[in-house]
Design a protein that fits this description.
Blueprint lengths: L7 E4 L6 H6 L3 E4 L20 H11 L7 E8 L2 H13 L4 E6 L6 H22 L5 H26 L6 H12 L4 H15 L9 E7 L5 H8 L3 E7 L18 H10 L15 H13 L3 E7 L3 H15 L5 E6 L6 H15 L1
Helix pairs in contact: 2-3, 4-9, 5-6, 5-7, 6-8, 10-11
């Protein structure tokens, strides 16, 4: 592990350009909604609000954060996340905070706008760190990010083949670590894991299923799912594999425009869409499930998540138009309701036999 002491900059969204935080000399640290702190965000935010946002705010209220976390990058991706940024500044007024507006489409005008937002982020990070961020530094950090994404994809292929020790739980543990430590340490961690699993024999201990949804970072969730008689062969969560997509940026002259286009062109979550292909999120789920040979699909969304509430009917209709059975679950970023979900998953697994 690296011995150089760096401060951490927190983030909460898979669209965050974490390579730029790395280029500024910070450690990008994803503030995950996984903690044993008491529920208290309701003192500041409405109770019927995204549980992801509320659990992250619970951590801030309880000071359940690294001592060296000195700032936050918030993406204005939905109204709930914008409210979190407001509450964070109220709760932790000493933290440095920047809010980036995130377009919903990868249209040319949106890419141009977001490139300006990235330029503003670069200037802000430079002011925070006291050192200039060059395009060359950003490209170097993007290269390391891409290498991490490549390793995650390799481990994801191990998962699909039943070769990853610890299965879905272990993959989530690795992704959680990779979003909280320096890039160079992430690469070493993932390279070591690949070596450990390269010659591991393939094992299928349940019905192969594909998972999708928005936020589920608790590794234990994936283990509990598999205890119900299924085997996870792939997933698409913004706290998991969707976090790492290749950013093939090459030229220093147009670095912000390149980065903007690749970030906005990532596989869409429910709050983003391609105007030329509005149903892409649903088609992506079907395509991934079929390509992996999944015999069933399990969707997990958070309560009060407006983007997913709007998109799930389309996803459900698209999947039901295939021969792949679908089970939809709803949660609150904790495992408190898993007892009820367990019964439904076991019945779903039995139906797939």
């Amino acid at each position: 592990m690296t011995n150089m002491k760096k401060e951490k900059i927190g983030f909460t969204c898979a669209y965050t350009p974490i390579a730029m935080a790395d280029a500024a000399g910070y450690i990008p640290y994803r503030v995950l909604p996984v903690s044993e702190v008491p529920d208290q965000a309701g003192r500041i935010l409405h109770d019927n609000l995204c549980p992801h946002v509320k659990r992250v705010l619970d951590r801030a209220l309880e000071n359940d954060l690294p001592e060296d976390l000195t700032g936050m990058i918030f993406m204005n991706s939905c109204d709930a996340m914008r409210r979190l940024a407001d509450a964070w500044m109220e709760t932790r007024p000493k933290d440095k905070v920047i809010i980036l507006d995130l377009p919903t489409t990868p249209e040319k005008i949106d890419i141009s706008f977001f490139a300006q937002e990235l330029s503003r982020l670069s200037d802000t990070l430079a002011a925070w760190s006291g050192s200039r961020i060059t395009a060359g530094k950003i490209l170097q950090s993007i290269d390391q990010y891409n290498r991490i994404a490549d390793r995650i994809q390799t481990l994801n292929s191990f998962l699909a083949d039943g070769k990853l020790k610890g299965s879905g739980k272990r993959l989530q543990e690795l992704i959680n670590l990779a979003t909280s430590i320096p890039f160079e340490d992430s690469l070493k961690l993932l390279d070591d894991e690949i070596i450990k699993n390269k010659n591991h024999p393939a094992e299928m201990n349940g019905i192969p299923v594909f998972l999708f949804g928005n936020v589920m970072p608790d590794p234990e969730f994936f283990s509990l799912i598999e205890d119900c008689g299924v085997q996870i062969i792939g997933n698409d969560f913004c706290t998991s594999t969707r976090m790492f997509s290749q950013l093939p940026c090459k030229k220093e002259e147009s670095i912000f425009a390149q980065l903007s286009g690749h970030i906005l062109g990532k596989p869409p979550c429910a709050r983003s869409f391609d105007p030329s292909h509005p149903g892409k999120i649903a088609d992506d789920v079907v395509q991934k499930a079929k390509s992996l040979g999944a015999r069933g699909v399990i969707g997990h969304s958070l309560k009060f998540c407006d983007p997913y509430l709007a998109r799930l009917p389309m996803v459900r209709d698209t999947i039901q138009g295939t021969e792949i059975p679908l089970l939809l679950l709803e949660g609150d970023c904790t495992l408190r309701s898993f007892g009820q979900q367990k019964t439904r998953i076991e019945a779903f697994a039995e139906m797939l036999r």
